[in-house]
Amino acid sequence: MKIAIINGPNLNLLGKREPEVYGSQTFEDYFAMLQKKFMNVELYYFQSNIEGELISKIQEYGFSYDGIILNAGAYTHTSVGIGDAMKAITTPVIEVHISNTYARESFRHQSYLSGNAKGVILGFGLKSYELAIQSFFL
């Protein structure tokens, strides 16, 4: 099984950015733990602060991978383009958020992605990614 994790803007700052919201662990360290825990899964990771690069990766992985886990960060609430890319592909996408977006600012309550996702997992910290991986085995 091949699963790609795609992270959007500012998620390269995990471990430094707002640790009270996002925790103190870097994503690279967490990703290494995921690779050890899910040795039977080929995990790939991509992060970009650029919307078009995220769309290109969704399109690249979207016809040959078994799953995509997408945390589009703030683009979740603004990007029709990312939502359209999700709709155009055949690979199922799980939308993930580290924080509970509904417990935050009201603009974070709207997602342009959720309607095109297989499911949405939010509010469980970095564990949200692990739950998303497990969902592909259900």
TrEMBL record:
The record marks 17 as: Transition state stabilizer. Its EC number is 4.2.1.10. Pathway: Metabolic intermediate biosynthesis; chorismate biosynthesis; chorismate from D-erythrose 4-phosphate and phosphoenolpyruvate: step 3/7. The keyword Translocase does not apply. It catalyses: 3-dehydroquinate = 3-dehydroshikimate + H2O. Belongs to the type-II 3-dehydroquinase family. PANTHER family: CATABOLIC 3-DEHYDROQUINASE (PTHR21272). Catalyzes a trans-dehydration via an enolate intermediate. This is 3-dehydroquinate dehydratase. It comes from Flavobacterium hydrocarbonoxydans. The gene is aroQ.
